[in-house]
Amino acid sequence: MRTPYYQYDLGILENTLKSIKESTAQHIDWHVHYAIKANANPLLLKLIKEYGLGIDCVSGGEINVAMENGFPASSIVFAGVGKADWEIDLALKSDIACFNVESEAELDVIAERCAALGKTAHIAFRVNPDVDAHTHANITTGKAENKFGIEIPMLLPIIRKALDNPCFAFEGLHFHIGSQILDMEPFHLLCQKVNALQDLMEKEGIKLNSINVGGGLGVDYVNPELNPVPDFKQYFSIFENNLKLRKGQQLHFELGRAVVAQCGQLITKVLYVKQGTVKKFAIVDAGFTELIRPALYGAHHKIVNMTSDGPVQKYDVVGPICESSDVFGKDEMLSEVRRGDLIALMSAGAYGEAMSSQYNCRPLPPSVEK
Ligand SMILES: *Cc1c(COP(=O)(O)O)cnc(C)c1O
Hints:
It is a single chain. The chain folds into two domains: 10-261, Alanine racemase (TIM Barrel), CATH 3.20.20; 262-369, Lyase, Ornithine Decarboxylase, Chain A, domain 1, CATH 2.40.37. It is built from ten helices and 17 strands. The protein has helices spanning 10-24, 42-50, 60-68, 85-94, 104-117, 155-163, 185-203, 232-242, 257-260, 293-297, and strands at residues 5-8, 30-35, 54-57, 76-78, 98-101, 121-128, 150-151, 168-174, 210-212, 250-255, 264-275, 280-284, 303-305, 312-318, 327-335, 342-345, 367-369. α1 (10-24) packs parallel to α8 (232-242). The chain is elongated and about 70 Å long. It starts with a strand and ends with a strand. Residues 35, 37-38, 56, 58, 79, 176, 179, 214-217, 254-258 line the site of pyridoxal-5'-phosphate.
């Protein structure tokens, strides 16, 4: 197998999906959509579809990939602050379940496209609830300074506008506060915000068919072997115990990372061991072209030498890309590294392969089932 490549353990994915299913089975009005931007590899999509999840898309390309992989349009929701006209048209023609509308300007364009195509759009409004997810600044989305969603003080007039236009079927409200959230408190705060908004809507005589609380549940990047499956019971119970849903209301979730992160590993080969004056570098053949999370968010993936069981030494593990940020780990304690050893970057199933690029004219990485 040419390195670097992605390796997926479908057993871990299956255990993850089973746990999601078990934690939500007693609620027929709950729907889990997989956020396909985390990983659109067909190997994974096939299993995710078998477990009955819907799809959360953030682009027209993702809508196409979801449908090509057999997900019914009726299970697809579509978010994003910058939906292009062709993407709106594609979603309307495909009869997707719901647009998560992020601005009044977008609402106006969807109305135009509905009129042009003779279609009705099912819509929810993405609310910016001003909740701090206490996660990395580049992956928090629910604060007033973030570009996402509609701020609460601006919400009512926009909902009224939608209700007044027969081309819209207004479904409800959508939220998504950030990613890699391990502390349950932000989800708890989100529930309180949703409850307060529901009370307000009720007072205003506005009926909500559905509430969508987005995704964001984190995974254990430090000890992936100990915690291959996130604590879905705890996560879902926050909503079960704190959200005051109205009779007949649907509750939607959009989980990405928590579904696929732990089933994927990036496998890379050591090209050179380079001794500096103060550092020893393990130079591997993967770089941020294959896994950009360390360079983009300062993220860390556990690094394991799969080949060697020599005495543990300290290395900076770096890639071949001509950028100083192309570093997977500093002062990593690894079994003695030699040229040709295979190194695994763990927990790379989410936002790994999906974010890979061809910078430096590098080929995209292949993938295999473990
Ligand atoms: C990215 C995204 C998700 C999934 O986020 P995770 O942290 O991977 O669970 C859900 N909803 C929307 C709107 C998103 O943009």
